[in-house]
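User: Second chain of the day. Same drill as before.
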Amino acid sequence: MPTAPVIEQVDPQGPVAMALLRQAAAEARALYPELVRPNAPPPTNAPTPDRGVYLVAFVDGAGVACGALRPIDGEIAEVKRMFVVRDSRRRGLARAILDALQEHARSFGFSRLRLETGNRQAAAIALYESCGFEHIAAFGEHANDPTSVCFEKRLGVGKGAVVG
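Assistant: Same format as last time:
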């Protein structure tokens, strides 16, 4: 039985984060082949910005889940790079990463979180809805993407608090 996950802040350009990104990208390309040019370069992670964080969940020393927080403006941050490796799904890792990202967002002074996922990712949509995220119109770079499903959550001051 695997040990409890340990969530750590990592360098988004380091080997663990990049390995998870490659797996996430391969899965996304399989789900949405019509959106990716066959000769498209592999994705990269930008450095962590001020008031941002890149988290990885480790189980038995292996990086198995990730998520990042990037500021949109002074009040809103975007949740990015949410991914759990296939063999580690349905163990609460995505929820644990999302909870940790929300705590970081509160500590950085953000009042709202936004995120985007794809319309073919039913498990991700269910997770975000169950965590109190509400559907919103597509925003930013996602605005003209017909596969984008976007969410927002208002953050309270204390752990788990939601401001309506």
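The domain at 6-154 is CATH 3.40.630.30 (Aminopeptidase).

User: Great, on to the next one.
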